[in-house]
Design a protein that fits this description.
Quinone Oxidoreductase, Chain A, domain 1; alpha+beta; Rossmann fold; five-stranded antiparallel β-sheet; binds zinc ion; 2 domains; 9 helices; 226 residues; two-stranded antiparallel ribbon
């Protein structure tokens, strides 16, 4: 499978960060995988505010850009179970260890293993190697009902859901979402989806949600989304 593919696609395009003012579209070899990994052809990848921050804050390399991605499995390691070639997947980029001080306090993004882990070479590539731990813990099947574009919102939505769950909301509280860009709109839906304003008996039953933005089209989008 892979040999054939290499004949057809000897190289792939990937966006590689060399420094904040030297980000190149490069030809790279398609990654090779071992028997516990996956090779995924990327459908698309969202551009996160954190990608832009790395550039504007002039982060020193290595910097891996792009992590809000969906793709199709084109090669599946022999020892991988639960996945097969042709399936559409969402792959998150970091895997926490689950046992360190930070993980035990659910501050996964502070975990050293979380920070060290990533997809290869980056989300803005035609193909990515999904390492073993990512296959086990952060690769999800994309449901038929979601487009690839919608699937690319799973990672930012997960951040919003986590933020809502970690906020000690009580009935009678009000939530104000400042800024209704893509993440603000996701946050609004996360608060509502977790119960506010709908199910008065739910954990956030009587919480009021407000969205604030200067742009009328964003306010309209917020209304359209409920
Ligand atoms: Zn992000
Ligand atoms: Zn940890």
């Amino acid at each position: 499978m892979h040999d054939k593919m290499e004949e057809r696609f000897p190289t792939m395009k990937a966006i590689i960060y060399h420094s904040h003012d030297d980000i190149r579209l490069e030809n790279r070899s398609i990654p090779t995988i071992n028997e516990t990994e996956l090779l995924v052809r990327v459908h698309g990848c969202g551009l996160c505010g954190s990608d832009i921050l790395k550039i504007t804050q002039q982060a020193p390399p290595p910097v891996i850009l792009g992590h809000e991605l969906t793709g199709t499995i084109v090669e599946c390691g022999k020892a991988v179970s639960g996945f097969e070639v042709g399936q559409r997947v969402i792959v998150a980029h970091h895997v926490p260890c689950g046992t360190c001080h930070y993980c035990r306090h659910q501050n996964y993004s502070m975990c050293a293993a979380f920070k060290a882990s990533n997809i290869d070479p980056c989300g803005f590539a035609e193909y990515i190697r999904v390492p073993t731990e990512h296959v086990r813990h952060t690769t999800l099947l994309l449901p038929e009902t979601l487009s690839a574009e919608e699937g690319s919102f799973v990672e930012p939505l997960a951040c919003c859901v986590r933020a809502v769950r970690r906020t000690p909301l009580l009935p009678g509280d009000s939530v104000v979402v400042m800024g209704l860009g893509s993440v603000g709109l996701l946050m609004l839906q996360a608060v509502k989806g977790l119960g506010a304003g709908r199910d008065k008996s739910g954990p956030y039953g009587a919480v009021q949600v407000y969205g604030v933005d200067l742009l009328p089209e964003r306010l309209q989008l917020a209304r359209d989304l409920g």
